[in-house]
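User: Can you help me understand a structure? I only have the sequence.
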Amino acid sequence: MPTTVFTIANQKGGVGKTTTAVNLAAALAEKKIHTLLVDLDPQANATSAVGAEKQAGKSLYGPLRGEGSIFEMIVPTAYEHLALVPSEEDLAAAEIELAQMENYLMKLRTVLAPVRASNGYRVIIIDCPPALGMLSMNSLAAADQLLITLQCEYLALEGLGQILRNVERLKSAHINDTLELGGIVMTMFDSRINLAKQVVDEVKQHLPDKIFRTVIPRTVRLSEAPSFGKPIFAYDPQGIGAVAYRSLATEVIERFGLK
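Assistant: Let's start by predicting it. Here is the structure, written out as tokens:
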């Protein structure tokens, strides 16, 4: 089976992007799908959220510069079927340096190519920085499917148009002709707030075939889990957050034929 590359992106911070990257990856791994989580954010939140230590030289900074291979950067996690390419602070320099390179938008695609060719992973999930800079644009150029996390709050839809315009630019420039909007994950849903329901309804109205049925709730347990270095399934396995991400993983498997 070919590898499917998902990038989870949104230029806004605090919208459940890393939480979704980590817990979707862990949920797929729990379902015995070999998954590689790539932390492309210099803040390294996805790295710490699966209990991995930040280590100097352990990020994609070198491979993006043509130094070394991605295989040297892959580390196991405590969870079967889930591996990680960690991040650390040196990756921040890549934002500046990539812009000065030839074919600067294609660097991540080139780095990931041998992993795809190896068929060692069914799924690669890329967690992007909260900005549409060089690293995020590289992830869009390298991905098959874009998953957008959208907070169930006022102004959430404003950023959606911007990221979709960038997808169209990449396609029209033939940088990634096959990139698709794979789906929209509504996050931080509070059923007590009318506005949250209105935002979900509005997205359903505009992009009915793209929004996932599963809505990720706002829960203290989901917020706490990363500080313990655990996906939600290790921290609160029977809680509503774990139930939601298992449900989302089932939808992703069905939508993209991952079994």
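Now, to help you interpret it: The chain is about 40% helix and 20% strand. The beta strands are 4-9, 35-39, 75-76, 82-85, 123-127, 145-151, 180-189, 211-217. Let me know which part you'd like to focus on.
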